[in-house]
């Protein structure tokens, strides 16, 4: 007969089982969370690398442009543009020069010159 | 009752599982903790690298902040053959950006080597374009290292002063060399790990030290004055076809070098395309006999020692003076000249007699006090001392030859600084070419302070010599072509035969010069021009005819740029007569 056998078997300790399951689930959750955070970290690392790369590229392009601006605004470049006629120079006539001291005398031609007349033809109107 | 109850069976099963997991755990602990250092080192050796973060080299600026030298970023393209899956496809995408032939590139990409340089100095825009193309196509294998190319925006202007860099990025010649430590900066580094595909794992980034970029070096050079000087030297080089022509402008009160140039010259953007003769900064490394510009030394010395005064009469032997077995000649036969006029007329005999009154030792002392025979200590490499022999090595006639600038060799910069003594109340200043050193964040780390070397002659004597030098550029002097309308110009011409390296002098070859300052009453600049072996008529090859007009043009343009107020009465400019230019 099975009745006495079933009466002597221990009852299922639901509480213990539940605690074990809960503990196992907690550990599993911790593990999964850890993996998720690690993955996020790596993903952030990839984004960081991309942003750093873009920043490096921007800075480099900026430096290239600054170097080009320097070249285009250099003395040599401006002088060659003047020589080619791409940039015109307008001589400043005496009436636009304000001096605290008495002005220098004008020449017979009406030009105001502070140095010799030898290079009078040098200025390009 | 059986020994093997359910509890016992469960217990045994649990025990077995515990033992099994314990074995695994122990192994795990042993590997992860016990042998951690070993495996970490192994992983680091395979995947971890020390990545250099290059520092940006500092700029070189002129006195007004114009950029004279700067870095332009470039990249070095490399290939890791193990990451290239399809060399032909990668070559098709990369060839236009790398400016290489596709089939040639495909052959190079088809390699097992983990590191191979494809192209150096790749423009930044090409590298960025290629990176984007590879990303779009999902391709790997080509990587870029940041580098830089040094750019000199003004081309050959100021090339001798700036210098250039060698292939390792170190300064060679000029300021690039003398201030290399300030300009270079310090590279940073970062320890990184890469994954199997070669990409950095940012999470494992280790120790990092940012780069310290180089400092900016600001010079005393004013590019506007430099351009004026270079323009006039260009014209002189074209018209006179000389062996060389050199010029330097100095502010006498502080010793600041405002401009310095030579012809022939070179472009520091491509130094390899030039020969060594073009790269010589002759202002500091050429040794020349100065000729009559040296006469200011003997005259200033005689006045300072009160051996004579400006009106003291000196008999100039009517142009022929026999001394020590040799005849010394003047260009013209002068009778009696005052000391003042000895300089105005540039009488060799007059100067020789002044030197004889001074004596060997005192003459030698003043030559050295004016800075000859020693380096000026300018911050440029390669400067030479020149040659000034002590009296015990002189021959019988040296005392009559040295005052007229023979038997001594000097550099153009030494003459300019000696002339600046007269312009600066008798004070010899140390030439300065570096004005400031500025850190990346704008902090001034070094600021130039004018350095007086010594008081050579008294201010009163300097004024007396200056007065004579003003008359040199007047109607009675030898440098009428140096006159500038509206300004008092003080100066001295020099004409010397060219020294033959084998000994003696080369017949028919002359080194002519002019050194002057303006305005004489309050000098803003000293300019020295030297022309070596100009192609011109023998009767015209004099300092007053060849070099003085160059000075006049430079001085006139400089006065206009510096907005100098004319203060002199109407100056009678020299005509085309050659008489006023001799000596």
What labels describe this entry?
heterodimer, A: 125 residues, mainly alpha, rod-shaped, disordered N terminus, disordered C terminus, B: 583 residues, alpha+beta, seven-stranded mixed sheet, five-stranded antiparallel sheet, elongated
Structure description:
Chain A is mainly α. Chain A is 60% helix and 0% strand. Chain A has 3 helices and no strands. Chain A has helices spanning 3-8, 14-72, 75-84. The longest helix of chain A is centred in the middle third of the chain and has 59 residues, at 14-72. In chain B, 34% of the residues lie in helices and 22% in strands. Chain B has 583 residues and is an alpha+beta fold. In chain B, strands 2, 3, 4, 5, 10, 18 and 19 form a 7-stranded mixed sheet that branches. A 5-stranded antiparallel sheet of chain B has the order 12-11-23-22-21, with helices on both faces. The chains are: A mainly alpha (125), B alpha+beta (583). The A-B interface holds A 9-10, 41-42, 44-46, 48-49, 56-57, 60-61, 63-64, 66-67, 70-71, 73-77, 79, 99, 101, 104, 113-119 and B 6-7, 56, 66-67, 70-73, 123-125, 128, 146, 151, 153-155, 157, 199-203, 223-224, 226-227, 231, 483-487, 552-553, 555-557, 559-560, 564-566, 571, 573.
Helix content of chain A: 55-70%
- Compute the number of strand runs of chain B: 23
Beta-strand share of residues of chain A: under 5%
Quote the distance from N terminus to C terminus of chain A: 129 Å
How far the N terminus sits from the C terminus of chain B, by CA atoms, comes to 139 Å
Largest sheet of chain B: 7 strands, mixed
Could you name the ranges of chain A where pLDDT drops below 50 across 5 or more consecutive residues? 1-5, 116-125
Structural class of chain A: mainly alpha
Indicate the multimeric state: heterodimer
Query: How many helices of chain A?
Result: 3
Tell me, briefly, the overall form of chain B: elongated
Overall geometric form of chain A: rod-shaped
Order of helices and strands of chain A: HHH
Sheet having the most strands of chain A:
none
- What Rg of chain A, in angstroms, do the CA atoms define? 45 Å
Number of strands of chain A: 0
Question: Which regions of chain B contain 5 or more consecutive residues with pLDDT less than 50?
Answer: 575-583
Q: Which structural category do the helix and sheet elements of chain B fall into?
A: alpha+beta
């Amino acid at each position: 007969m099975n009745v006495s056998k079933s009466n002597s078997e221990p009852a299922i300790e639901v509480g213990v089982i539940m605690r074990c399951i809960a503990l196992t689930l907690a550990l599993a959750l911790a593990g999964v969370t850890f993996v998720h955070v690690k993955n996020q970290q790596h993903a952030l690392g990839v984004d960081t690398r991309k942003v750093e790369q873009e920043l490096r590229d921007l800075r480099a392009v900026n430096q290239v442009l600054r170097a080009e601006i320097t070249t285009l605004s250099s003395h040599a470049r401006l002088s060659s543009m003047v020589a080619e006629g791409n940039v015109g120079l307008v001589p400043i006539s005496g009436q636009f020069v304000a001096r605290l001291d008495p002005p220098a005398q004008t020449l017979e031609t009406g030009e105001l010159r502070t140095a010799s007349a030898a290079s009078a033809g040098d200025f390009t109107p | 009752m059986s020994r093997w109850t359910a509890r016992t069976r469960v217990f045994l099963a649990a025990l077995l599982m515990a033992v099994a997991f314990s074995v695994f755990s122990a192994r795990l602990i042993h590997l992860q903790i016990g042998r951690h250092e070993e495996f970490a080192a192994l992983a680091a050796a395979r995947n971890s690298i020390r990545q250099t973060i290059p520092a940006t080299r500092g700029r070189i600026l002129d006195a007004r902040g114009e950029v004279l030298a700067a870095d332009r970023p470039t990249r070095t393209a490399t290939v890791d053959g193990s990451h290239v899956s399809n060399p032909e496809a990668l070559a098709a995408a990369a060839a236009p950006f790398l400016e290489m032939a596709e089939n040639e590139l495909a052959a190079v990409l088809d390699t097992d080597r983990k590191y191979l340089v494809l192209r150096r100095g790749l423009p930044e825009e090409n590298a960025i374009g290629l990176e984007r193309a590879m990303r779009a196509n999902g391709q790997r294998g080509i990587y870029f290292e940041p580098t830089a190319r040094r750019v000199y925006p003004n081309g050959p202007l100021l090339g001798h002063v700036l210098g250039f860099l060698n292939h390792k990025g170190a300064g060679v010649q000029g300021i690039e060399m003398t201030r290399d430590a300030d300009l270079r900066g310090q590279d940073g580094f970062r320890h990184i790990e890469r994954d199997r595909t070669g990409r950095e794992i940012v999470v494992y980034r280790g120790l990092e030290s940012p780069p310290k970029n180089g400092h900016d070096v600001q010079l005393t050079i004013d590019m506007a004055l430099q351009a004026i000087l270079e323009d006039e030297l260009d014209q002189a080089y074209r018209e006179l076809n000389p062996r060389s022509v050199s010029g330097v402008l100095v502010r006498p009160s502080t010793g600041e070098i405002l401009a310095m140039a030579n012809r022939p010259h070179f472009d520091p953007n491509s130094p390899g395309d030039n020969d060594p003769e073009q790269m010589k900064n002759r202002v500091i490394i050429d040794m020349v006999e100065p000729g009559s510009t040296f006469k200011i030394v003997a005259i200033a010395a005689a006045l300072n020692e009160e051996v004579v005064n400006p009106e003291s009469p000196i008999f100039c032997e009517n142009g022929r003076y026999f001394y020590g077995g040799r005849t010394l000649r003047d260009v013209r036969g002068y009778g009696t000249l005052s000391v003042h006029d000895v300089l105005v007329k540039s009488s060799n005999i007059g100067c020789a007699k002044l030197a004889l009154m001074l004596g060997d030792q005192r003459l030698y002392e003043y030559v050295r006090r004016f800075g000859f025979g020693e380096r000026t200590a300018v911050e440029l490499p390669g400067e030479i001392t020149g040659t000034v022999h002590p009296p015990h090595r002189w021959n019988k006639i040296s005392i009559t030859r040295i005052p007229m600038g023979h038997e001594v060799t000097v550099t153009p910069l030494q003459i300019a600084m000696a002339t600046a003594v007269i312009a600066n109340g008798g004070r010899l200043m140390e030439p300065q070419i570096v004005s400031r050193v500025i850190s990346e964040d704008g902090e001034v780390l070094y600021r130039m302070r004018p350095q007086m070397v010594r008081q050579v002659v008294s201010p009163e004597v300097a004024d007396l010599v200056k007065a004579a030098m003003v008359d040199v550029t007047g109607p009675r002097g030898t440098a009428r072509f140096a006159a500038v309308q509206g300004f008092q110009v003080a100066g001295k011409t020099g004409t010397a035969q060219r020294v033959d390296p084998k000994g003696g002098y080369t017949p028919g070859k002359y080194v002519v010069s002019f050194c002057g300052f303006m305005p004489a009453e309050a000098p803003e600049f000293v300019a020295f021009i030297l022309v070596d072996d100009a192609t011109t008529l023998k009767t015209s090859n004099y300092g007053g005819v060849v070099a003085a007009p160059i000075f006049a043009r430079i001085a006139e343009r400089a006065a206009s740029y510096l907005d100098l107020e004319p203060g002199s009465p109407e100056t009678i400019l020299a005509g085309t007569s050659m008489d006023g230019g001799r000596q």
